[in-house]
Write a structure and sequence with these properties.
Length: about 90
């Protein structure tokens, strides 16, 4: 539920970002993480052996790539990431 609210928040600057976040036909390159931070996938890291899956490398997105609007600040990202890490300690 929190992810849906976060996705709605990040899709308010323009229709293009809203569409990019909500695309169901493929693995999105722009997504809202479990910590409610908007991320851009910047690469893929291959697994060390055949059994290990590859993983996406993601970086927080601070400005909309379509319209240039500021979508989050470094301080907001840090606060959300720190809060998410704290919530999942001992899990």
């Amino acid at each position: 539920m929190a992810e849906l609210k976060a996705a709605a928040k990040f899709g308010t600057c323009c229709e293009e970002l809203k569409d990019a976040i909500s695309g169901d036909e493929f693995e999105p390159l722009i997504m809202v993480g479990e910590d409610e931070v908007l991320y851009l996938s910047v690469g893929i890291v291959a697994g060390e052996d055949e059994e290990e899956e590859s993983a996406m490398v993601e970086h927080p997105l601070f400005f909309c790539p379509f319209c240039g609007a500021k979508v989050q600040t470094p301080d907001e990202v840090k606060a959300k990431s720190d809060s998410h890490d704290h919530d999942h300690e001992g899990a």
